[in-house]
Amino acid sequence: MSRRIKVQLNRVEGDLELELDVNNGVVTDAWCIGTMYRGFEQILLGRAPMDALAITPRVCGICSTAHLFASTLAIESMSYITPPANAIRVRNICLLAEEIQSDCRQTFLMFSPDLCHPTYKNHSLYPELSEQFMDMSGNVYKNAVIQSRHIIEIVAIFGGQWPHSSYMVPGGVTSLPDIAKVLSSLSVTQNYIQWFEEQILGCSIEYWLTLKDRASLEKEFKSNKAAASLMHRFCTEIGLDDLGSGSDLLMSYGSVIDTDEPKHRLRRSGIYNIGSDSHSELEQHLITEDISYSWYYDESSKPRHPHEGLTQPKFSSDDQRYSWAKAPRYKGDVVQTGPMAQLAIDRDPLILSNLREKGCSSWLRQFSRIHRQAKSLLLLKEQLESLLSNIEQPTMAHKPLIDGEGIGMIEAARGSLGHWLRVEDSKITGYQIITPTAWNASPRDAANQRGHIEQSLIGLKITDEDDPVEIGHVVRSHDPCLVCTVHVLGSKKKHRYGVI
Fold it and tell me: What CATH number does residue 324 fall under?
């Protein structure tokens, strides 16, 4: 029996709409749909470059630090500005704090509640899952709300507010760090680490990072009863480690800038091919955007590099187009981005071991957000301690802006974020933003390649087509942010899964 269903997911950033062909309980085709246009790229045209620092953080209320970072890097690259080491430290600290809170909230407030779905009520682990992860009442759920709220305070300590801060500027940061700010942030970080070790990992972060392969992880989880172990045991038992693979190409722009060599990243950039188990350098000039299935118009039918990109909306209901999201491609290929990709490209042994033995899956994608928090907490602490040791150093390098083209590429919590800027006569004449979700949730392209999330849904078995919890597992493992990508507006109907 064949059926076409439309699904609107809650517990994602923005309302996400999917259209699926289901045949005898198996997804045979998928369309990932962005349903509203807002057009920040058009808003920025004709403005002064510095205006981007106030406007782009408002693209998203979750990753506004990352957008501010990318916009600042774009202006600095255009004007050949290198900020001092302390400014880089402050930027890194705030980006890491935002990433940690996002990983925490996505894992325990958005993904985990689906593990308490009534479909699983007869599973032996269901009582434990409900006690820890039930929406609004679970122990881990409630503590994640508190801890994620505190860790993001670090951005407000250094930047004055969060979200939509504007403390990063070309040449440095506007807020002066002092001992009190650093010590307060270290206290917040240490409190988060204590909770994370006790309730989530069940061991110290230092011990956790000695787990280098899948076998050692499985051995640890046999005796460990903390939240990460509970999630792993359940998700593997219900088969989430075999679902939702999608594209084999992973991408990361690199993250956490090296204070000794600002052109380098402490977390490397690059491309990783799961199938061939090979790493390669990232070449940003090979990035293009395709609008063959998107509601935009362009006299040229060829994909464009973002520096030549156009954002000219044109809605049509009578052709093949079905989304306000564009289709970014790398060398014409579909890629996926996010924490799993970032860690694999940075040669993390535990993630690479899992990819080599089991391949990409919804659970590994989600597990990477737990594993990345452990690594990021230590990195955050190191950056704060380094700032404390160099507290008297400057945070600003003054240099005039010039016309030209700039590129700002950074890793947001959800993956690779890029801003491409062009300025003429001190006015913005071109601005293109490619968000992580644009990569993951893109529509088809001129070669009729499905976007990554669309690919990840093909072959998925659905138990109840009227309440497809399996779709929630796969899609939420990507932490899609349609707010960033196309600024989605839903139908105003609120359903658990919203099957229409």
Answer: 1.10.645.10
